[in-house]
């Protein structure tokens, strides 16, 4: 209960002003394509040089919280996921926006983000010591199985058929092998210098999601301009809140999956949203509605990716190990003020530690308030004529891809992947499984190689990868997930066959 | 009105192209390329040591940091060697032994001849760490175990052909033992996590990160791979003191360089100003607070250090 004593510090005039500034700034940065939470926090670090440690961290914490949520804005309205965390949000969110329900989608996403986010920070406050042990429990073999679990999701994610989903997943896995390999020192598929560092995930995301859309808009030409003006439906915040309460399943699954997965160092943030989305879909009676603008999809994805924020800081704050790229940047922000995370932080600088954590708690709520305020305005984006919209999205895409690491190479990569995806989409493939392959490939590969190196030097491959309760548990979950996919596929086939026979 | 505007643009353009004149150099902000991501140790230190560049007694112009991460630094250094303008406005941060080891192993477009060093700001030695509850209490224990169980002692480090890997090779060579080096993806932090979580029996890591982990009570530091003990860790003996012939080849030196072809008068100006800029007391305070050891070297000293490193690394990596 120690944290309550430090609530006052958050509300001192300068701190609160920074909190407000960080939240609003974070929402804007988050909504800008290409500026991931990691980038946004890194950009703000130089500003904290002049501030006290506590104030600097409040600014960074607020920015982290709200950029994660802000990513939903471009994901829903422009179909450009700002970071891997927002991929799942585009699936249903953008479809809703196209139907004129952008305001509703944004309201739901901010409310769900706030609920997930507050839960995540509360976990950070009350369960940090327990969670730290859990974060350490995942070694290479467990992370390998976890990545495989992610692969089993690929088939069922947003595709016409399991086969097409798996095929796009494979393309993603192949793309992930491009570049220098840090573990074996090998070079793979580097045909051009700009591929040396591999495919940058943010540039790939922008290319795969936004560019096909731009091309489709251009392909339609100007003739349909008048016919397609979408009526933006107004939606009250109260109604959105009610809807959230009526969908406890999506909210619960999203929040819990997000907080558990967010904890695992090196994996968490990127796949939390997608796994939560998939789980919610599997447990939902309206499976068919997912991908067609179903509010449950938005709720699950957004509650998961904000629930991950609090737990993702556990390894950093307790063990001084940054578990995610953003945590690594925050570590820099702490060090610059001479504060070492770990026991030192909580014992000798409790004012810094708790004020920082409290500010994230309040930041979640402020983020929600401002987010809801802009939701109504932002949804009008759908009224912009398509020809203008295409140009704007293309401009933002180029800007976003370039800004990740100030490299034109990333822009070329984005453009190539975008054109490729445009044609793949025509044949019923979709971008989400491809991206999941791109994210999971390196995790599975690196952990398998590392694990096998350790295994060969110690107990041997068999016991290392197949033994131990956590390995066995994860394997059972993998088997269950595969079995479930096979079962649904067979069932739908039976239904289809029956329909065909009747007709 | 329009004419004025065009004239102004023309003047600005001339300023851009003719800016390398030594007298008025620098007359616009500089940029420094860091080949690791924002928030990493190199980036973090680069931002601190360049924060006083705008002062009148330094360059009088600010330095902006541009990150070009990827492939263990190769992406950034490839760009710097082949595409960066050699006009004195594009600086780069180097990490030794990383870029030298990479150029020896091949597959990159740079070598020590592609760059002109300006000054060195930091030196972060590699240390050998074990988990706090490990049975090892000195390098002797580690070597004894490795002798009894050849190839069985697993220890982590941040990737191949980086300081950690060099230190690992040197320790194995000095002790005459075979151990299992496990390179991690995700840098020193992932390697440290593997040690703390008990996935590996030990690890090579940065002194600054290990110091922090020891303060947090998570690891024990058994030895420093440097010529002298560190001021941060006065109680931890060097490898040499423990009978292992390991020099400072694995120490991660960080500093500033420019591409080959930069005008000599510009190099001269930078080489005279930059070391003094690093000596600024504000810089020293921030570096110390972050647990980052400083080690300022002039251009001539760095040229010598690069040559010596290249020699040692060629011998060490010849067997791989």
Your description of this structure?
The complex is a heterodimer of chains A (503) and B (320). With 503 residues, chain A is mostly helical. Chain A has one domain (2-502). In chain A, 74% of the residues lie in helices and 1% in strands. Chain A has 23 helices and 2 strands. A two-stranded antiparallel sheet of chain A has the order 1-2. The longest helix of chain A has 35 residues, at 102-136. Chain A starts with 6 loop residues before the first helix and ends with a helix. The relative contact order of chain A is 0.18. The mean pLDDT of chain A is 85. Chain B has 320 residues and is of the alpha/beta class. Chain B has 2 domains: 2-124 and 251-318, Bordetella uptake gene, domain 1 (D-Maltodextrin-Binding Protein, domain 2, 3-Layer(aba) Sandwich), CATH 3.40.190; 126-242, Periplasmic binding protein-like II (D-Maltodextrin-Binding Protein, domain 2, 3-Layer(aba) Sandwich). Chain B has 11 helices and 11 strands. Chain B has helices spanning 2-17, 41-49, 74-82, 98-105, 139-148, 163-175, 187-196, 207-215, 264-278, 281-289, 299-318, and strands at 30-34, 63-67, 90-96, 115-124, 126-131, 154-157, 180-183, 202-206, 219-225, 252-259, 294-297. In chain B, the strands form 2 sheets. Chain B has a 6-stranded mixed sheet with strand order 2-1-3-10-4-11, with helices on both faces. In chain B, strand 1, helix 2 (41-49) and strand 2 (63-67) form a beta-alpha-beta unit. The radius of gyration of chain B is 21 Å and the shape is globular. The termini of chain B are far apart. Mean pLDDT of chain B is 88; it is low at 10-20. At the A-B interface, helix 3, strand 1, helix 16 and helix 21 of A face helix 2, helix 3, strand 7, helix 7 and helix 8 of B. Chain A: Keywords: Membrane, Transmembrane, Transmembrane helix. Chain A: Pfam families: TctA (PF01970). Chain A: InterPro entries: DUF112_TM. Chain A: The chain crosses the membrane at residues 12-33, 108-128, 134-155, 195-215, 316-340, 352-375, 387-405, 434-458, 464-487. Chain A: Residues 17-436 form the DUF112 domain. Chain B: InterPro entries: BUG, Bug_dom1.
């Amino acid at each position: 209960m120690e944290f309550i004593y430090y609530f006052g510090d958050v509300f001192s005039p300068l701190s609160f002003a920074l909190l407000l500034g960080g939240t609003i700034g974070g929402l804007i940065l988050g909504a800008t394509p290409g500026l991931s939470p990691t980038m946004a926090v890194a950009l703000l670090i130089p500003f904290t040089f002049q501030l006290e440690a506590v104030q600097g961290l409040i600014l960074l914490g607020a920015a982290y919280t709200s950029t994660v949520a802000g990513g939903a804005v471009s994901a829903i309205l422009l179909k450009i996921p700002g970071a891997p965390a927002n991929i799942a949000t585009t699936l249903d969110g953008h479809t809703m926006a196209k139907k004129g329900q952008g305001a509703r989608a944004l309201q739901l996403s901010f409310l769900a983000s706030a609920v997930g986010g507050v839960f995540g920070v509360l976990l950070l406050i009350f369960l940090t010591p327990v969670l730290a042990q859990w974060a350490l429990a995942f070694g290479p073999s467990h992370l390998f199985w976890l990545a495989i679990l992610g692969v089993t999701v690929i088939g069922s994610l947003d595709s016409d058929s399991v086969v097409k989903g798996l095929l796009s997943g494979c393309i993603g896995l192949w793309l992930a092998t491009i570049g220098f390999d840090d573990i074996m020192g090998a070079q793979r598929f580097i045909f051009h210098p700009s591929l040396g560092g591999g495919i940058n995930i943010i540039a790939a995301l922008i290319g795969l999601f936004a560019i096909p859309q731009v091309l489709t808009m251009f392909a339609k030409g100007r003739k349909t301009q008048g016919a397609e003006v979408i009526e933006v439906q107004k939606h009250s915040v109260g109604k959105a809140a009610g809807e959230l309460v009526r969908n406890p399943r999506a909210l619960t699954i999203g929040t819990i999956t997000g907080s558990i997965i967010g904890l695992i160092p090196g994996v968490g943030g990127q796949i939390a949203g997608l796994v939560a989305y998939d789980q919610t879909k599997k447990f939902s009676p309206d499976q068919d509605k997912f991908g067609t603008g179903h509010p449950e999809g938005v709720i699950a994805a957004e509650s998961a990716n904000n629930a991950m924020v609090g737990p993702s800081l556990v390894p950093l704050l307790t063990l001084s190990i940054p578990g995610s790229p953003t945590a690594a940047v925050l570590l820099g922000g702490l060090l610059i003020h001479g504060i070492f995370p770990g026991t030192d932080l909580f014992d000798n600088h409790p004012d810094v530690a708790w004020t920082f954590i409290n500010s994230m708690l309040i930041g979640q709520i402020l983020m929600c308030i401002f987010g809801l305020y802009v939701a109504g305005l932002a949804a009008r984006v759908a009224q912009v004529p398509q020809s203008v919209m295409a140009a704007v999205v293309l401009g933002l895409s180029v800007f976003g891809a370039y800004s990740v690491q100030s490299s034109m190479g990333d822009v070329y990569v984005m453009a190539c992947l975008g054109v490729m995806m445009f044609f793949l989409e025509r044949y019923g493939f979709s971008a989400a499984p491809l991206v999941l392959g791109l994210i999971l490939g390196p995790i599975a590969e690196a952990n398998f190689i590392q694990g096998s190196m350790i295994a060969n030097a110690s107990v041997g491959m068999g016991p290392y990868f197949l033994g131990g309760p956590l390995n066995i548990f994860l394997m059972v979950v993998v088997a269950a997930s595969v079995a479930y996919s096979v079962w649904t596929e067979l069932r739908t086939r039976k239904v289809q066959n029956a329909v065909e026979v009747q007709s | 009105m329009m004419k004025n505007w065009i004239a102004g643009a023309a003047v600005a353009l001339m300023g851009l192209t003719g800016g390398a004149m030594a007298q008025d150099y620098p007359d616009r902000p500089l940029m420094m390329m860091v080949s690791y991501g924002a928030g990493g140790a190199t980036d973090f230190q680069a931002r601190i040591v360049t924060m006083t560049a705008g002062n009148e007694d330094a360059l009088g112009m600010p330095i902006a940091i541009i990150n070009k991460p990827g492939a263990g630094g190769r992406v950034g250094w490839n760009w710097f060697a082949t595409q960066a303008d050699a006009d004195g406005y594009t600086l780069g941060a180097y990490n030794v032994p990383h870029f030298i080891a990479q150029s020896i192993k091949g597959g990159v477009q740079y070598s020590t001849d592609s760059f002109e060093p300006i000054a060195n700001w930091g030196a972060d030695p590699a240390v050998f760490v074990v988990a706090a509850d490990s049975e090892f209490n000195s390098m002797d224990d580690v070597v004894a175990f490795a002798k009894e169980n050849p190839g069985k002692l697993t220890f982590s480090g941040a990737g191949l052909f980086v300081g950690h890997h060099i230190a690992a090779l040197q320790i194995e060579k000095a002790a005459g033992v075979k151990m299992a080096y496990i390179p991690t993806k995700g840098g020193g932090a992932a390697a440290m996590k593997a040690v703390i979580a008990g996935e590996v029996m030990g690890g090579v890591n940065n002194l600054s990160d290990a110091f922090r982990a020891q303060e947090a009570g998570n690891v024990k530091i058994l030895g420093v791979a440097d010529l002298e003990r560190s001021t941060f860790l006065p109680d931890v003996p060097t490898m040499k003191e423990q009978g292992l012939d390991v020099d400072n080849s694995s120490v991660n030196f960080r500093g500033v360089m420019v591409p080959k072809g930069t005008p000599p008068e510009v190099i001269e100006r930078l080489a005279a100003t930059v070391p003094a800029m690093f000596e600024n007391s504000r810089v020293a305070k921030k570096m110390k607070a972050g647990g980052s050891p400083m080690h300022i070297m002039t251009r001539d000293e760095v040229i010598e250090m690069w040559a010596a490193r290249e020699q040692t690394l060629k011998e060490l990596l010849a067997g791989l």
